[in-house]
């Protein structure tokens, strides 16, 4: 079982107080650790479309190649159902513009895949209108990315189409060959879904998946009226890839058996056990590569 491995730059973005690397230093880090490519966070403080002109893009493309990295994916951050309360604001157009810019940026630095999200359910509208909105927006995003040879990948993260069956329905409804699901195991595992069955269903449609692992920490809220506690939603504590509750050996095996031959990115996208020092981040990344090597 051998898949190209990518390291997600969000892991070294300082977003949760961990050590921060610049984009250039991160590219060098990923190569030095032994990854095949990078997944670059497409917002500040990393690869923002506002900050990278033609010269900067050419320089980044050259750096990626010089470091022997062969796979590049951009991680976009979208929420197509945002601010439905204010119809006079062209939020849809803004986000389509952002995704279009991401496609151009990916093309300019040698990539052919961008990762985006759908939308969180918004009480300002019904479910079906929001579903239709997401379908329409994804169609336009895919159409605008197609001439650049870029695939719009939809990760199962936000509320709309987060279940794998709904995600498959969504991609079919969009009906564009360059709009593909980037199905990962995190959401279905937390929801109690059979991730092996889900992986087999989604595998033929996928060019990429992103993984991280967690342990569930129970939470309890004190109720003074009854001098007792009530259970809260467990906290998901990020841990090394081989110490969490998500069975990635089974998940990746099911993807392989289902025909998946795409890339696998590792991310540390929340506070990790042991703290956010560069040494601990590197340790987690190395353990991921050892885990992947052991699957071969």
Query: How much helicity do the residues have?
Result: 25-40%
- Total helical segments: 9
Percent range for β-strand residues: 15-25%
Strand count: 10
Largest sheet: number of strands, sense, barrel closure: 8 strands, parallel
Q: Report the end-to-end length measured between terminal Cα atoms.
A: 4 Å
Instruction: Give the integer mean of the pLDDT values.
Output: 97
Q: What integer value in Å does the Rg equal?
A: 19 Å
Element order: H for helix, E for strand: EHEHEHEHEHEHHEEEHEH
Principal-axes geometry comes out as globular
| Uncertain runs | none
What is the SS-derived class? alpha/beta
Strand order of the largest sheet: 6-5-4-3-2-1-10-7
Secondary-structure blueprint:
Layout: E1 5-8, H1 23-33, E2 37-41, H2 54-66, E3 71-75, H3 91-108, E4 113-116, H4 127-145, E5 151-155, H5 164-174, E6 179-182, H6 186-191, H7 195-202, E7 208-211, E8 213-223, E9 228-239, H8 248-257, E10 263-266, H9 278-294
Parallel strand pairs: 1-2, 1-10, 2-3, 3-4, 4-5, 5-6, 7-10
Antiparallel strand pairs: 8-9
Describe the protein's architecture and organization.
- This protein is globular.
- It has nine helices and ten strands.
- Helix content is 38%, strand content 20%.
- With 296 residues, it is an alpha/beta fold.
- The strands form two sheets. The chain has an eight-stranded parallel β-sheet, with helices on one face. Strands 8-9 form a two-stranded antiparallel sheet.
